[in-house]
Amino acid sequence: MTDVRIVRWSPARMRARLDDVIGVYKAAFLDEHEDDPVRAARDRATHARRHFDRGDLRAVVALTPDDQVVGMTYGLPGKVGQWWHDVVAAALPPDDAVRWLADCMEVVELHVLPGYQGRRIGRDLLQELLRDVPQRTAALSALELPGSRARRLYASEGFVPLLSHFRFPGSYTEYAVLGKDLSGPAVRTSSAQTTTGQPAQVP
Fold it and tell me: Residues in domain N-acetyltransferase (predicted)?
């Protein structure tokens, strides 16, 4: 991965490069999983703009020497009143909701261009995103495809299933909701069983 560097970006930088960031998301995910990826990308850009306006955004990108964005991830602290947080909290047993979501960094997106996958870029992005975060846990949702490259990555990084075959309101797509204990070794929840870089700088 000598030709790619992992860099933390500020919210302002993410806003300035929104088209590039969404372009990675479209090529890596929407083109494969959406019937209308162009429309889905426009919708996602609208959501991303709101996320990138938050001062507590944490973002990391993978850049080539010519400044092309080939991978990206970002996260936000979960809060009561936010859609993803509240939907997942309502679906979990109350004790698990408190344990996993009360002090949580939500990994909103993690994508790598298809031509750059399989080179541990995704792993480096995820590790940098979660490096030294103050939150006690991290959580995310991923397609319910246990053998996929993404699911293997998350499992190897210590994420465990919190919810399986979960459908978010208004969607027929099945997701797994995964969590990681950032204070120590991965642990099991009361309701689910586990399945099988260097510090970057903010420009």
Answer: 4-183
Domain boundaries, the chain: 5-181
- Nearest partner of 109 among 94, 98, 122, judged by Cα: 122
The Cα–Cα gap between 182 and 96 comes to 15
Rg from Cα positions in the chain: 16
Nearest CA to 110 out of 146, 76, 155, 61 is that of 61
Per the document, the length of the chain is 203
- Structural domain 5-181, CATH architecture: 3-Layer(aba) Sandwich (3.40)
Written as one letter, the residue type at 51 is: H
- Residue-wise pLDDT for 25-77, tens only, equals 999 988 787 789 899 889 989 999 999 999 999 999 999 999 999 999 999 99
- Closest alpha carbon to 140 in 114, 112, 168: 168
Among 171, 169, 164, smallest CA distance to 189 is for: 164
CA–CA separation, 163 and 30 (whole Å): 23
Distance (Å, whole) CA 7 – CA 203: 8
Spatial contact of 189 and 160, defined as CB atoms under 8 Å apart: yes
